[in-house]
Design goal:
Layout lengths: L2 H8 L3 H13 L1 E2 L1 H8 L3 H14 L2 E6 L2 E6 L3 H25 L7 E6 H19 L3 E5 L3 H5 L3 H11 L3 E7 L12 E6 L8 E5 L2 E6 L6 E6 L1 H17 L7
Parallel strand pairs: 5-6, 6-7
Antiparallel strand pairs: 1-3, 2-3, 4-10, 5-8, 8-9, 9-10
Length: 247
């Protein structure tokens, strides 16, 4: 990932990113020098420098009675994340208490793009860990591997490391896509019954993954009633299928 993009995903603004990278490269500089080199207006440079100082990412000092700025150790980026993580962990009991009364309320969330697909996959892993779920039901399309050639195999390994057993239905045309193993049993659906979504049923949630028309999205539905109903449909289909490819 490009450095600028990574820093912006970390939480920096575009101006903070430009100025921070400049100070990393050139060690120290005045506000005037930074403005000239980065094309950030001088008035904005002062505001941005103050923001970076408050966050602890840069340091100000004087030389010949002129204010200079320099970047703190890059390790500060990691330390800042750890501090934020510690703050959030300390208030999680209160947050959970506030949401406890709505924990069983039905919810549907739509996440778009490749990042949306990843959000859905991460939600599956997080739910499996949190709820200690040991079996899930799924249908899958090869698009997951095509769009996420590195991410998806790694995700599969993380899921298997949790010891979760998967009953998986694949289209007959995808017999080489995923095969049965100790933690996965695969059955194949006759090509007369094509399906275009990948679906995972996990606990009281269902995640739908679609790549239709090259527009990826993930729809997550949290509802015990809906999940139970889809589980029964899945198990009915499962009993009708064979473990070998059906032509």
């Amino acid at each position: 990932m490009e450095l600028k993009q990574a820093l912006e995903q970390y939480g920096f603004t575009k101006n903070e990113t430009s100025i921070y990278i400049y100070l990393l490269k050139y060690i120290e500089a005045t506000a005037f020098g930074i403005a000239k080199a980065t094309d950030v207006p001088r008035s904005t440079v002062y505001i941005t420098l103050e923001s970076l100082k408050k966050q602890g990412f840069i340091f100000q000092f004087k030389k010949n009675n002129v204010a200079y700025f320099t970047a703190e150790s890059p390790n500060r980026l990691i330390n800042a994340l750890k501090q934020k993580e510690g703050i959030i962990e300390s208030i999680m009991p209160e947050i959970r208490a506030l949401t406890a009364k709505n924990i069983d309320a039905p919810v549907a969330k739509l996440h778009t793009g490749i990042n949306g697909i990843k959000i859905g996959l991460e939600d599956i892993l997080e739910t499996l860990k949190d709820k200690k779920i040991k079996q899930i039901f799924a249908t899958s399309q090869p698009e997951l591997l095509e769009y996420l050639p590195k991410y998806f195999p790694n995700w599969l390994k993380q899921r298997e490391d949790l010891g979760v057993f998967t009953k998986l239905i694949l289209p007959a045309s995808a017999s080489e896509y995923l095969k049965s193993n100790a933690l996965r049993e695969v059955r194949y659906l006759n090509k007369k019954f094509p399906f275009t979504c990948s679906v995972t049923i996990y606990g009281n949630k269902i995640a739908f993954f679609s790549f239709e028309n090259g527009e990826p999205y993930c729809l997550i539905v949290k509802s015990k009633a809906v999940s139970d109903t889809f589980t029964q449909f899945f198990l009915f289909s499962w009993e009708m299928l064979e473990s070998k490819t059906v032509e």
